[in-house]
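Tutorial, part two.
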Amino acid sequence: MLVDVTGTPDFTARPKVELHVHLDCSLTRRALHRLGNPIGEAEFRRVFTAPERCDSLMDYLRAIGPSCEALQTAPALAIAMDELLRALADDGVIYAEIRFAPHTHQRGGLGLDQVMAAVTEGLAEGEAATGIKAGLLLCALRDYPPDENLKVIELAHRWRDRGVVGVDLAGDEAGHPAAANRRVFDRAHELSLPVTAHAGEAAGPDSLREVMALIAPARIGHGVRAIESDDLLAEIKARNLHLEVCPSSNIQVGVFGDYASHPVDRMSRRGLSLSINTDARTVAPLTLSLEYRRLSAAFGWQTGEFLAHNLEAVRHAFLPEEAKAGLGARLIEGWGG
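Running the prediction step on this input gives:
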């Protein structure tokens, strides 16, 4: 158990925003049932979840394999997205940005635009069924050739008015520096695509500095190892970079030894812009409501902290200002702010 949440409030009914959740790490058992796989709960957890403590980020990434294998057809992608939105709604999420790497869903013969058609079909179905809103972030992968990643940028541009809200740099941070993908994200900026990038998880401050200098994201996925450098923390704050923090995920992959040593509370107290996210709802397994209970138990976070960080998530969401205003009003009403 990462942290004992006994006696903490149930946050399920509270409205929430999630900016960092991976589709292929969040395949639900209901989706598999709809696809004809009657897998039971115990077998589902054995196959699709990672150990509570992994030896490394790469061990964690290997646990994603079974989910990715299951998401190689158009029906699977559509149903997985639909069911993820339903799970988000059950968790009280009112807006989410869901990310995935289109290239990893082509083993069954789908073209990139066919992948997008399936995912956006599921997105539309899930939004209609639940009333929540979501946007898509397309991931370029550090270990893929830059020419292949450029295709992801062009794909995001083609689908921008059909669900895509931005692009991401993801993958093996420690083994693949960001420099190889500089021209990929130069192209994203040329197309005015909003950019986030994974950094400061499997590697430290130098990796963050490289991403900030060469990729120029508006947000950083994780970013928690910035805590190792006071100068870097000050720069992140001065540049108003938003950190998509995923505490339980960081502990699961061994970035920090336990919840008490995770820097999210220290970063919050220093005034950094950050949001709380699950990263992987199935591989973890985790809900945002459970993550909030852990933060409440470990650091004494209450309504004020949760509302503030949800409002920061909205402020840095890749959305038009009018949509942000509506979400902010719902958060304030729902948290009693």
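The longest helix spans residues 112-130. In part three we will examine how such features are distributed along the chain.
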